[in-house]
Amino acid sequence: MSKLTKSQKRQFGPRAISGYGPGAVITATVRHDDECSNGHNTFSITADVVTPASRRRNDIEAGGCLHEDIARVFPELAPFIKWHLTSTDEPLHYVENTMYWLGYCGWTDGKPGSPPNLEHARSAAIWPDMPESFVAPSYIDFSQKRNYQCIGSDIEAQLRARLPQLKADFRAAVESLGMEY
Predict the structure, then answer these.
(1) Quick check: is 46 in a domain?
(2) Is position 179 within any domain?
(3) Phi then psi dihedrals of residue 99, to 5 deg
(4) Is 31 in contact with 9 (CB distance < 8 Å)?
(5) Do 100 and 61 belong together in one domain?
(6) Over 128-171, what HEC string results?
(7) Distances in Å between the alpha carbon of 90 and those of 38, 82, 108?
(8) Does some domain include residue 123?
(9) pLDDT tens string for the chain (181 positions)?
(10) Which domain holds residue 65?
């Protein structure tokens, strides 16, 4: 069980960062709390980049989910990026997002016939070696407006079966950062 926490964050940095010009620094913020007041703690890892010019404007140069920059400048935080937007319930829309990216919801990336995105599905499921065979078969014709939920039911069952271990791993990650779960 998790203890609901209104505000719990840790900051890392600032550290120098390349790619934003001379004098640029990045600060990473890791949170695990219910700042949104939705009834459960959610983990996030974001960053702000400040440059001399943005400092003069009293602003930031870049901010938000700068995960590639965070991993490059704060390698100790790289293992935690996969938990971004995971709550004490589960990763954000865990089954729904994974099935969407696997192609079981008629996903076309706005372009008819474009393939599903296995890497996005792996990210949504926090399953880096998810089998390629999970991608929806190309013969599914979503234009017929049929209910295709049952096609991926075995995959949904496998996702749900790994959820308890995923939640235990998430808890261990949060606590390893010295944060209350």
Answers:
(1) yes
(2) no
(3) -65, -35
(4) yes
(5) no
(6) CCCCHHHCCCCCCCHHHCCCCHHHHHHHHHHHHHHHHHHHHHHH
(7) 14, 13, 26
(8) yes
(9) 788 899 999 999 999 999 999 999 999 999 999 998 999 999 999 999 999 999 999 999 999 999 999 999 999 999 999 999 999 999 999 998 998 888 887 655 556 656 688 999 999 999 999 999 998 876 555 555 444 455 567 899 999 999 999 999 999 999 999 999 9
(10) 9-87
| Three-state DSSP state, 6 | coil
Return the H-helix or E-strand segment holding 77: none
Give the integer Cα–Cα distance in Å for 116 and 169.
Answer: 28
Domain limit, last residue, from 66, 87, 108? 87
Question: Is 67 in contact with 84 (CB distance < 8 Å)?
Answer: yes
As given in the structure block, the two tokens for residue 51 are 């440059």
Per the DSSP assignment, residues forming a β-bridge with 33 are 42
Using the 3D structure, point to which of 87, 111, 140 is the last residue of a domain: 87
Report if residue 140 sits inside a domain: yes
**Termini Cα distance of the chain:** 8
Distance of alpha carbon 69 from alpha carbon 82, whole angstroms: 14
Please state, in angstroms and rounded to a whole number, the distance separating the CA atoms of residues 91 and 88.
8
Residue ranges in 24-152 assigned as alpha helix (H): 52-56, 67-73, 94-102, 118-125
Count CB-CB contacts under 10 A for residue 136.
Answer: 22
